[in-house]
Specification:
The chain is mainly beta. The chain has helices spanning 50-53, 116-120; strands at 4-13, 17-19, 24-35, 38-47, 62-74, 83-97, 108-110. Strand 3 and strand 4 form a beta hairpin. The two termini are 22 Å apart. Mean pLDDT is 82; it is low at 100-115. Residues 117-128 have a biased composition (Acidic residues). Pfam families: DUF3127. Residues 104-128 are annotated as: Disordered. InterPro entries: DUF3127.
Length: 128
């Protein structure tokens, strides 16, 4: 599967959260897109070192994010119903504009590789 891109204005930046015994970290950034008569909100997860890269952006910045869709199956035990989760994992971003007219800057931060994050999270502490 190839990586995809999405762009929008940064609507929300959450604090970094840590999960599991190995300290898996993730940070949610929500982009806002105007789609005619409604607003679309796109949640993206930055993980591990990518959490620190988010410090370079602020609410109101216009960014383009390269992301990968990840799916996960989770089941508490063999008698429980299986749950399926989908998330958009941010791999890198490029600052397009900052709401203050500084468009065109080409800051790019690369977060991390592949799906290592799920391997690091404790199975009891699902990182979603």
């Amino acid at each position: 599967m190839s990586d995809s891109k999405v762009s929008g204005v940064v609507h929300l930046i959450e604090d970094t959260k840590t999960y599991g015994n190995k300290g898996f970290r993730k940070r949610l950034v929500v982009l806002e897109q105007e789609k005619g008569s409604f607003t679309n909100y796109v949640p993206l997860e930055f993980v591990k070192d990518g959490c620190d890269a988010v410090d370079d952006i602020k609410v109101g910045d216009e960014i383009e994010v390269v992301y990968r869709l990840n799916g996960r199956r989770w089941q508490k035990d063999e008698h429980s119903e299986a749950k399926y989760f989908l998330n958009a994992e941010a791999l890198s971003f490029r600052l397009v504009g900052d709401g203050g007219g500084a468009g065109g800057t080409m800051t790019e931060k690369v977060s991390r590789s592949a799906n290592d994050a799920f391997d690091e999270a404790n199975e009891d502490d699902a990182p979603f």
